[in-house]
Design goal:
Largest interface: A-C, 51 and 73 residues
Number of helices of chain A: 3
Distance between the termini of chain A: 41 Å
Chains: A alpha+beta (95), B alpha+beta (481), C alpha/beta (486)
Number of helices of chain C: 15
Order of helices and strands of chain A: HHEHEE
Helix content of chain A: 25-40%
Strand order of the largest sheet of chain A: 2-3
Strand content of chain C: 5-15%
Structural class of chain C: alpha/beta
Distance between the termini of chain C: 15 Å
Shape of chain A: flat
Oligomer: heterotrimer
Number of strands of chain C: 11
Number of strands of chain A: 3
Strand content of chain A: 5-15%
Shape of chain C: globular
Radius of gyration of chain C: 21 Å
């Protein structure tokens, strides 16, 4: 199955990627080829099979509801492309 | 044409945990931006979520309090979308397998009882906060992100589309809020956003089974606004269906603008969503053992209905009093604390319902901050019983206590409100009243004993209500004889 | 032999006997790095000053009194491990200037044992790749033949250890990213059971498949490294709270009574002739050591690669959403509105393969395709897991090739993603099933390219795998061979 240009653009938009016309063409072809290959899975009847999300079957552990102070805020903030005091700053978002 | 409105509510309740849902940061608000953050709730590379046990316990509690079945296996899923207040590019929520399913709430509107179904309750993390004006510089040329709220645990409680009027929707929301506050899982404060309500509203011709196109309403931060927004939306959709207004009803999100009293579309701002939910691979399934669920059930705080019954049997209150008192947990607690110190429930109920409720403007969120405490009310009632003040000045005393927070006794002293039981102190006033009203004296002496009340009233007026009524009565009788 | 040529356990003996100091070892390693890394390009950043301080610390045994064999040993760390205060790029332009605010649990455990960190190692961008050609900062060369790739995604780790640029290294393995490069560079590469080692602080690629492990010069070193890395971490919900055995105790030479499973699906046409021959010889060797080789079948083997490329890309598309130019990482400065900030930052920050996988992962999760792709992939994953469960009813450990071919030439598969994906055909299913797997040297081609064999064990039975590996290794000399880097 060949992905249409619109489909490629729709996926790119969902993933917040901007593609050039050449990339749309290239990714369209490559993704189509990969999906054709992936379609070999359709040979299997999986109607009665449970899905596996994890290879291990144990429940999720819990954390106690106790505050642990963290001193790394500034170390995180120094990585911000733009900041003001202790805010992260972004271009105006229409509220 | 008239239409039937179909309403379903989605309520988000912020849980009263000390820490966030997936990290050990405090859930406290206010303070410096990003003060309560860590690499996990800032979505730094390599970080992983670990579930807060208390949040799970609260979810179980909320489910049990609303008659839900508690699912022994539920799954956390990622809801993928981009927004600056969403640090990981996805929100951890529950999707296909939520923790609670199929509950109900009983409401009453205009004396008519109705059961509203609950579709589900699930856990999720809150987003951060985006401010569009810098709090100090007042600059507006950018937006600023603060993740203090980011990662706070929420319950999303989804109702069935069972409500058929704005009044029913509000009654449901009030009932839900009361129960959640009773269960101790949220403070339920709508103004501060710890309880948020979205409404799905659609219209259909009466008799039609199929639902109409639904519109999601957001941004209603009070019961009143929920009612107004739904009313507005009913009118808007009705006008479109009738052709008196141009346009088409489309499935969309509309924001309620409380200042303009209208809803407006968020279209264009948000593109068609495709959240690409899938099980979060960083978290394993949430598996609840039955023993835990049973323990939570046993420890579940008393809920409004049970409390009302108990108030009627244990405290022998009339149904109306009991209903009013349990309508808010804070009020019921105020009442019971007071009864413990002054074991005359009906009298306490009267003062709480008639005076205290008025003082706080019928707003139970003001109870915790009220300077008038249950002990004060009990003390004031005892002062009346002991003859230290008269019943008629008690109102004045309570009002002063409410204004100042000073205990009743000191208010009485400071304001000179003590009861006058000394005949000597009253004699002059009685003499004056008798001297000034010769006609009434005639009538009394002519056999009209009812006129006695007039003299008592006049003296009371003169003493600012402080005269001991028994003593005064006897004195007036004596003087007139 | 120079100090940098030795193994962890050999150096630990020298340190114990005070015949060498950590400082000497560390200096030897840095000298080697300076001599060869311009050709190999294994490192993205070096931490010489810190490393010498750590070496000094180890020599003085300051801090804790520990008898760890890792004390004073210079290690390389794959650059998708966060170490506080150091750059962590995951070989991506989007993280080019990212300075980690905290340290990964796995890295911390090595530091706690007194290890010396030489620097951060090159990898395929976000660990996505099989050749290490997908690094935003230039590919890595195979020390055995500089015209060839070292394998990926832990290509820098493999090349550095093989070239003597560190004594051992950490890697991560999502579909073969430790085992494949180890096989192509004559090293031991171990991917532990999913949940054995903490993932906290590892830049995530595919969360349900990623696992941390070591690349070492021999099996003993692999056991030593696993001893240090393994264990429960309360910060990683998927790390299991199970006791950690002393893996070096598992290293025994005889295999009497052991059953080794040989799955026919892994011995197929299309595998390089010399690789196939080396594997046959390896099978004969384990038989001679007393093991019984039994035929087992893993019928869904062929479905592994397509399943993997659904599940891994789906998880990756979501894991990589946080690289949005808001809180850290690359931001396009020209963007005036939010949407273009996102799109331009991400498009310019990510490389081609990463974008391809994000696109694929986004597609398989999108409305209307979830059931057909993602859910189906999860179901096939169940079938693959069950294949192994059944096979392990008949054997203790499974033996297979690691890669159908020895190291290939740089550029050879670069233009055909599908062809590249098939390099992982023998390693991927181990990740899907969450099993431990390891690669160890089992010979060379005529042109002196290393060949690896893979051992796979049941969940949390790394000891069995290590025992077979050790017995095999001790019966050969492959692991002692070093590349002749001029």
């Amino acid at each position: 199955m060949k992905l249409s240009k619109d489909e490629v653009l729709k996926i790119a938009n969902l993933a917040r990627l901007e593609l050039s016309a050449a990339e749309v063409e290239k990714y369209g072809d490559q993704l189509s080829a990969i999906l054709d290959y992936v379609d070999t899975l359709n040979k299997l009847d999986v109607s009665s099979i449970e899905p596996t999300a994890h290879a291990m079957m144990v429940p999720t552990p819990y954390r106690a509801d106790e505050v642990v102070p963290d001193a790394t805020r500034e170390k995180s903030l120094v990585n911000a492309p733009d900041r003001e005091e202790t805010f992260f700053k972004v271009p105006k978002v229409i509220g | 044409m008239s239409y039937e409105v179909v309403i379903g509510l989605e309520v988000h309740a912020q849980l009263l945990t000390r820490t966030k849902l997936f990290c050990s940061c405090s859930t406290e608000f206010g303070g410096e931006p990003n003060k309560n953050t860590c690499p996990v709730c800032l979505g730094q590379p390599g970080t992983l979520p670990v579930l807060n046990r208390q949040a799970v316990e609260f979810a179980i509690r909320a489910g049990l309090a609303t008659g839900c079945s508690i699912e022994t296996k539920s799954v956390f899923a990622r809801k993928n979308y981009f927004y600056p207040d969403l640090p990981k590019g996805y929100q951890i929520s529950q999707y296909e397998l939520p923790v609670c399913l199929k509950g109900h709430l009983d409401i009453e509107v205009d004396g008519k009882a109705k059961r509203v179904g609950l579709t589900r309750i699930h856990m999720e993390e809150d987003a951060g906060k985006l401010v569009h004006e810098h709090p100090e510089t007042r600059a507006k040329d950018a937006s600023w992100v603060d993740f203090n709220r980011g990662g706070t645990p929420l319950l999303e409680i989804v109702s069935d589309p069972d409500m058929r009027s704005p009044q029913e929707a509000v009654a449901y929301l009030k009932k839900l809020r009361t129960i959640l506050v009773y269960a101790g899982v949220t403070d339920g404060n709508m103004e501060e956003g710890s309880l948020r309500c979205d409404a799905n509203v659609s219209l259909r011709p009466f008799g039609q089974e199929k639902f109409g196109t639904k519109v999601e309403l957001k941004n209603m931060n009070s019961f009143k606004n929920v009612e107004k927004a739904i009313l507005y939306e009913i009118d808007r959709q009705g006008a479109i269906l009738d052709g008196t207004m141009e346009g088409k009803i489309v499935q969309e999100t509309r924001l309620w603008d409380a200042d303009k009293s209208e809803t407006h579309s968020m279209r264009g701002k948000e593109e068609a969503h495709d959240y690409r939910y899938f099980p979060d691979p960083d978290l394993l399934p949430l598996v609840l053992d039955q023993a835990w669920i049973e323990r939570v059930r046993k420890e579940l705080p008393e809920l409004p209905e049970a409390k009302r019954e108990r108030f009627m049997t244990q405290h022998h209150l009339p149904a109306y009093d009991a209903e009013v008192l349990v309508s808010a947990k804070g009020l019921a607690d105020f009442f019971e604390t007071c009864v413990a110190a002054y074991p005359q429930p009906k009298k306490v109920a009267n003062w709480v319902i008639n005076e205290f409720l008025r003082m706080i403007g019928n707003d139970e969120t003001k109870i915790p901050a009220s300077p008038l405490k249950p002990a004060h009310l009990a003390e004031a009632m005892k002062l009346v019983d002991d003859g230290a003040i008269s019943g008629s000045v008690m109102k004045t005393v309570l009002q002063k206590v409410f204004e100042t927070g000073a205990p009743p006794k000191s208010v009485v002293e400071k304001e000179g409100l003590a009861q006058i039981s000394d005949t000597g102190a009253l004699e002059a006033a009685v003499d004056e009243v008798i001297a000034a009203n010769p006609k009434e004296v005639e009538k009394y002496k002519g056999g009209n004993e009812k006129i006695l009340g007039f003299f008592v009233g006049q003296v009371m007026k003169k003493t600012g209500g402080r005269a001991n009524p028994g003593v005064l009565n006897d004195l007036v009788k004596k003087k007139l004889s | 032999m120079e100090l940098f040529d030795l193994t962890i356990h050999e150096l630990a003996d020298l340190l114990k006997q005070k015949k060498a100091s950590s400082r000497e070892i560390t200096e030897s390693v840095f000298k080697r790095v300076k001599a060869v890394d311009s050709k190999v390009h294994a490192y993205l950043s070096l931490a010489e000053e810190k490393a010498l301080a750590q070496a000094k610390n180890a020599d003085e045994n300051v801090g804790a009194i520990h008898e760890s064999p890792l004390r004073g040993i210079p290690l390389g760390i794959k650059d998708n491990f966060l170490i506080e205060g150091t750059k962590t790029t995951a070989s991506s332009k989007i993280l080019e200037n990212y300075v980690a605010p905290y340290t990964a649990t796995a890295a911390q455990k090595l530091l706690d044992q007194g290890a010396v960190v030489v620097g951060k190692l090159n990898l395929d961008e976000f660990a996505m790749g099989s050749s290490n050609e997908n690094s935003a900062f230039g590919g890595v060369k195979n020390p055995w033949d500089l015209e060839r790739v070292p394998g990926g995604s832990s290509g820098g780790s493999a090349a550095a250890v093989a070239a003597g640029e560190c004594i051992a290294a950490t890697g991560t393995d999502t579909g073969g990213s430790i085992r494949l490069p180890a096989a192509l560079t004559n090293l031991v590469g171990l991917k532990p059971t999913y949940g054995r080692v903490s993932r906290y602080g590892i830049v995530a690629f595919a969360s349900s498949l990623d696992q941390v492990g070591p690349l070492t010069k021999d099996v003993t070193d692999a056991a030593i490294m696993l001893n240090a890395l393994a264990g429960h971490d309360p910060k990683d919900s998927t790390s299991l709270n199970l006791p950690v055995p002393d893996y070096t105790k598992a290293l025994q030479k005889d295999l009497k009574g052991w059953k080794i499973g040989i799955p026919k699906e892994y011995f197929i046409d299309g595998t390089d002739v010399e690789v196939a021959k080396a594997l046959q010889t390896a099978i004969e060797t384990v038989k001679k050591l007393g093991a019984e080789c039994v035929d087992v079948t893993l019928p869904h083997t062929d479905y592994g690669v397509p399943t993997y490329y659904i599940l891994a890309t789906a998880e990756a598309s979501s894991n990589l959403a946080r690289y949005d130019g808001i809180r850290f990482g690359y931001r396009n400065r020209e963007a005036k509105d939010l949407t273009s900030l996102y799109k331009k930052s991400r498009s310019e920050g990510f490389g081609a393969e990463v974008k391809r996988r994000i696109m694929l992962g986004t597609y398989v999760l999108s409305a209307g395709y979830y059931d057909a792709y993602y859910l189906r992939g999860q179901k096939v994953r169940t079938l693959i897991r069950r294949d192994f469960e059944k096979a392990f009813e008949k054997c203790d450990v499974i033996l297979t090739p690691v890669s159908p071919t020895p190291a290939w030439k740089t550029g050879e598969k670069a233009s055909d993603p599908l062809k590249m994906y098939l390099s992982d055909i023998f390693t991927i299913n181990v990740n899907l099933a969450g099993l431990p797997g390891m690669s160890l040297p089992c010979g060379f081609t005529g042109s002196r390219l290393p060949i690896g064999m893979q051992l796979i064990a049941k969940h949390f039975e790394e000891e069995k795998m290590l025992r077979v590996a050790y017995a095999y290794e001790q019966a050969n000399e492959w692991h002692k061979k070093r590349p002749k880097l001029a």
